[in-house]
Amino acid sequence: MVNKKIAILGAGSWGTALAILLANQGGQVKIWARRTDLTEEINLRQSNACYLPGVVIPKNVQASVYLEEVLAEVTVAVFAVPSHAFRETLRRAMPFLSKTTLIVNVAKGLEENTLLRLSQVFGEEMGKDQETQYVVLSGPSHAEEVSRGLPTAVVAAGIQQKNAELVQKLFMSPVFRVYTNFDVLGVELGGALKNIIALGTGIAAGLGLGDNTKAALMTRGLAEITRLGTLLGAEPLTFVGLTGVGDLFVTCTSMYSRNFRAGMEIGRGKSLEEALSSVKMVVEGVRTTRAAYSLAARYNIEMPITEQMYQVLFNGLSPQQAVSNLMSRDHKKEIDELLYKKR
Question: Which of 194, 214, 333, 341 is catalytic?
Answer without folding.
Answer: 194
